[in-house]
Amino acid sequence: MPETPLTCIDLWIRAGSSFENAGEEGLAHFLEHMVFKGSHNHEAGEFDRAIEVLGGSSNAATGFDDVHFHVLVPPKVIGPALELLLDLVLNPALLQDSYFTEREVVLEEIAQQHDQPDEKVFQRLLSTCWAKHAYGRPILGYEESLKKSYPLQMKSFHERLYTGNNCCLSIAGQIPKDIETLVNNSLLGAINPISSPKAKKNEKISLQFNVGRHEYQLKRLEAARLLMAWPVTSAKDQCEVMGADIATSLLAEGRRSRLIQSLREDLQLVESIEMDVTALEEGGIIILEAYCRPEDLEAVENETHKILKESLELPIDLKEIERAGHLVKNSLCFNLEASSQVAAIAGSQALWNRSQPLLEPLKYINYWTESHLQENIFSKIQPELSCTLVAKPMEIDL
Predict the structure, then answer these.
(1) Residues of the chain predicted below pLDDT 50
(2) Is there a smaller number of Cβ atoms within 10 Å at the N or the C end of the chain?
(3) DSSP code of 205?
């Protein structure tokens, strides 16, 4: 909207939960909290007030691979907003009193997550798929690790990962002509280019996917669940990620998709069924999730298996592929409508050395013909290759 332009400044760091060492579980997310508790130059709360005075807002998020902090401000105040953001993220105070107070907040988040049956089912699936790898544990971490943590440990974590070679600044929206000067004169030029030689490097476990079928009973689960997961290529293989998006759209997006048409519309066995692709840096995942009555679980699982096998064995209508391609294209385009969305996608791509025009992935859509989908995608998402979790409500004796 030209009358109310907004610019997003988004700082990305390779410092997600997968970079935590043993005993650091939860520090990546906890550090995201602590950053907003003040820097060496600004007291707790001062950053938020200053950004609001500038007419902006701020937020942050921690993932498995990275963490990012962003502000959304009018373009005329980019300079002071950039200075505030970089000071906040690169110079956190990590004061002891704030540390132990905020730790209780994070521990309460973990307790709330444990109290949500849906979260527990989803986390059980990930931990079953990926076992001891960091992708298999909660981004929030473990209570026992956080209770043993201390400010100097977090300071060491920050010094090890919040370095020049791990950082990427993304700016989108209305951008002033002197932006390069503003960035070159900012705190980014002062941070260490690499981590300290004394810093303990992340001891990563190789990513392995576990195939098998498992059952799980849980109190207060409102409906039964069928979850099936399959490994998919890492985010850097954008062509195959696009193929996975097209395949899952063909199977489970919209009433005309195969799984929804059969299981929800025709047989009325499920409340909902969906498939999602999550692209991660070491290897992603495709997850199918169906909600149904406990007594319908067997029928839902059998019909799902049947449709997955048919996707590999029977011809695929060209109109199905075209429809799925349009859905994927629309999703990508609609996710580039706001400056914050553009900054996030561009920042993530640049951070992981995938800088490219934002609509570049669309070139892969036409590659995915019937034969390519069956040979390279549907062949990999067959029932016997899945990690399946059947979750049922636990019967409680009154």
Answers:
(1) 398
(2) C
(3) P
